[in-house]
Amino acid sequence: MVDRIASGAHYGVRDWLAQRVTAVVMALYSVFMVVHLLRQPALDFNVWQGLFHSLPVRLASLLFALSLFLHAWVGMRDIFMDYVHHTVVRLALHVAVILALVAYTAWAVQILWGGL
Predict the structure, then answer these.
(1) What span, in angstroms and rounded, lies between the C-alpha atoms of 29 and 100?
(2) How far apart are the C-alpha atoms of 70 and 13, rounded to whole Å?
(3) Could you give the angle at the alpha carbon of 84 between the alpha carbons of 80 and 87, nearest 5°?
(4) Distance CA 95, CA 89 (A)
(5) Residue 52, Cβ neighbours under 10 Å: how many?
(6) What angle do CA 36, 115, 73 make, to 5 degrees?
(7) What are the residues whose beta carbons fall under 8 Å from the beta carbon of 50, sequence distance 6 or more?
(8) What is the CATH number of domain 12-113?
(9) Cα 97–101–106 angle (5° rounding)?
């Protein structure tokens, strides 16, 4: 009989899927923005203001930001788990990344809805 030793967090398929879904969301948003901006005869403040005054664009932008932050979290966590072997240092890095991503999320919300 072989005793299995549990090690690691076993995120596996969930993280793989999260990386792919967030990448698709970011790619679709990027394509939309590039196409929209290329169709504008002039890019000035009024064009940008008009674009981001729309609720669907704000929601899509927020979804893009959240996807970016989740994508970054999964990637950074995997890098730390693979390459930072000292537990205290790894946990400190995890906390630092989480705090930064939460702050970036709040900042993104402030940017998108702060000037209502």
Answers:
(1) 23
(2) 15
(3) 100
(4) 10
(5) 14
(6) 70
(7) none
(8) 1.20.1300.10
(9) 150
> What is the separation of C-alpha 65 from the centre of its chain, rounded to a whole number of angstroms?
5
Please give the structure tokens belonging to residue 92: 């400190």
HEC profile of 59-77: HHHHHHHHHHHHHHHHHHH
Residue in the block written with tokens 């209502």: 116
What pLDDT was estimated at residue 42?
A: 87
Which tokens sit at 59?
């929601």
Distance CA 11, CA 7 (A): 11
- DSSP structural state of residue 5: P
Cα distance between residue 100 and residue 11, in whole Å: 22
List average pLDDT for each run of 10 residues in the chain, which is 116 residues long: 56 87 98 93 88 93 97 95 95 97 95 78
